[in-house]
Amino acid sequence: MERSKVYDVKTTGPKKWLIGLIVVGVILIILGFSSVAIVPAGSTGVVTTFGKVSENTYSEGFHLKVPFAQQVVIVSNKIQVYETDASAVSRDLQTVNSKIAINFRVRSDYSASIYKNIGAEYQSVILTPAAQESMKSITAKYNAEQLITQRNLVGEEIKELLESKVSEYGIQIEKFNIINFDFSQEFNAAIEQKQVAEQNKLRAQTEKEQKVIEAEAEAEKVKINAEAQATSIKTKAEAQAEANKTIAESLNEDLIRYQTIEKWDGVVPKVAGSANPLVSLDIDENAEAAE
Question: How far is the C-alpha of 188 from the C-alpha of 61, rounded, in Å?
C-alpha cells in the first residue's frame, strides 16, 4: 500500500505543474488582449477608467491601456447619413410633410465630450430635434409654391440654421438634402390646375405669335413681289425710252425717203396731205412730166 501511494504522488506532480502553466498562459493571454486597444481609421478612441471618461483620447491605430481598469469606446468621425421625416407649415398655412437627409460627422476633438455628456444616441438627442426645429423655422418664411420653385435656396438656409444649432456639440453638417415635399391633396390638385392653365395660355400665345409671324412673312412676300414688279416695269420703260431715243437720233431725211420708197406700192395717192407727202418722193413732178 505504501509503495502505491508514493507512485501516485510522483505521477500526479507533473500534471499539476502542466495545468498551472496552462492557467498562467491563459491569464497572460487575457492580460495581453485586455492591454491592447486598436482604433480603426476615421475614428477616435474614448478612454474610460472604471467608467470615468478621460479627457485624453486615442487616435486611430494601436494603443496600450491598463487591463480591466480601462476601456476604449470607439466613436466614428466618418461622414454619416441620417434620414428622418419632418413636418412644418408654410407661410400660406399649407401643411408640408418632408423627408430630409443629413450628411454629418462628429469632430474628433469633441468625441469624448459627446460620449460623456450625450452618449451614443446623440443623433436622436441632438440632431433630430434640431433638424425639426430648423425645418419649421425656415419653411414658415416661404409659401408652398416658393418651397417648390426655390427648393435649393430653402435647403441652404435650413443647413445654415441647423449647423448653428449643433456645432457647439461638435457635430459638423456636411450636406443637407430635401428628398421630397408632400402637400395636401387639395393643394396638389390646385397646383395641377394652375399648371394646365399656364400650359394652355402658353399654347395660345405661341399660336398667336405663329400667326403674326406668318402674316408678317406674307406681307413681306407681297412687298417683295410689288417691288420686283415695279422694278421690272421701270426697267422696261427705261429700255423703251432709250430705244426710242436711239431711233429718233438715227432718223434723217435720206433714211425717211428710203424707207418710204421701200414701202411704196406704186400707186399714186389721190390726195396729198401731211400724213402722205408726195413731195418727199417727187411724185408730183413725175406726174406732171408724164402728162
Answer: 54
